[in-house]
Amino acid sequence: MAPEAQRIVYFDNAATSWPKPPQVREAIIGYLEQVGGSPGRSGHRMSIAASRLVGDARDAVAHLFNVDDPSRIAFTKNSTEALNIALLGWLESGDHVITSSIEHNSVMRPLRFLEQQGIIELTVVSCSPTTGYLDPDDVRDALRPNTRLVVVLHASNVIGNLLPLREIGAVAHSAGAPLLVDASQTAGAYPIDVQALEIDMLAFTGHKSLLGPTGTGGLYVREGLDLRPLARGGTGSRSELEYMPDFMPDKFEAGTLNVIGLAGLGAGVQFLLDLGMAQVRQHERALISRFLVGAARLPGVKVYGPADPDERIGVLSFNIQGVSTSKIGLILDQGFGIMTRIGLHCAPAAHRTLGTYPDGTVRFGFSYFNTLDEVDYALVALAEIIEEEEHGR
Q1: Annotated active-site positions, please?
Q2: What domains does the chain contain, in order, with CATH numbers?
């Protein structure tokens, strides 16, 4: 097959999703042209309309995650900020924290900072080097009398494996510790019910599978947990006080919110709600299956993570024996128009677990807007890369 550099196949949805639904663009333009006001800061109709946009986005996210009280969701600029609010706002000196060996740096770096400062004790529980599985019994063995938090991702941003949240949460709760979940890769791609899974805190980003713009995200905190704010400032509420409000979501939403972004996020989430998460998951599962079956037929290709599509989301990492990840990524981009991400994916601990450190892997990240034809095209491209490499040796 001749290179099709003019064709664009976007497989970098694990970094940020593209394209967005047309409703997202329309919501953003609608804010700019028709709303324009600052939410909660004034009493005029444009400010009220802006507040309504934020409220609608909060309601949509609450519906998606089965949160009874939308005020338990505070908006942030991304999941990294949400995780920092949770970690720095909950943990205190002398606390013990348990996490996994496949975490993203948005979890690892705040924890390592707190550990380095002598504030917390940290246990990193090893996951399976083949599937990334985290055994809840290993989490139980790591418990200490001072364990005050268990924090894990829902699915790896490197290999896409799903962790057994319900079982891990049960272990955490047996020790009186809450469960904090990093849902950066699963929010919008996999059903999440915070009540059924007994999740205490959930950090999410808006620009990936929730199909919103960058600069959006949030943190769900169940009732009864009291966290310190990460930032302090104006909220438009209780303006007579020189102290932050003590109620959600205001206590975590200092400063003017990214209303234009939240308008787009609300539209993206509503798009998913209208589709239904079952349909989104079914489509993504078909893409995963197609790639796994096709890649298994290619000589020298190693795909990391579970072989069962039901145990993973559409984030797939692989290597081709004897070919550097940088070369693969460059050929896929320039020769075939396939957008990927190569390297360590901001998750060096995960790559050490998998044995792919320091070179990393090539990562495909699928979305609802990808097609089976695109997966087939990518498999053909990989076959051509392998053939060219064999002829060049």
Answers
A1: 346
A2: 9-20+277-392 (3.90.1150.10), 22-275 (3.40.640.10)
